[in-house]
Amino acid sequence: MACNQVQFGVHAVFGPSDPLLGAHIHSICDALDIPHLEARLDLDTDVREFSINLHPAQHLLNSAFQDVMTFLNWTKVAIIYEEDYGKLTSFNTFRSLRLEL
């Protein structure tokens, strides 16, 4: 699909949310100097010339969660993960609040 869009003179590519496909699309866009915008959790902190990720960094999300829990005076938290991304940093954030996990 992306290759067809390139043939038609696409000016930028938005997405995808899948990490494996995102890396592939990024590679194509980087090789052809096409801007690539995405909004997905990406733990890779390398600077990319033609790619912008609009998803907040994990440490910013953790800080926002911490602010909400502090504001609401929560004392207990349950964490359910679909994937392991950011797992350790989240635990450290919640432990710093002295919350019961």
Automatic annotation (TrEMBL):
- Top-rank taxon of the source lineage equals Eukaryota
Q: Which UniProt keywords apply?
A: Membrane, Transmembrane, Transmembrane helix
Q: Name one GO cellular component term.
A: membrane
Location in or out of the cell:
Membrane
Q: Which Pfam families match?
A: ANF_receptor (PF01094)
Q: Where is the Receptor ligand binding region domain?
A: 2-89
Q: Write down what this protein is called.
A: Receptor ligand binding region domain-containing protein
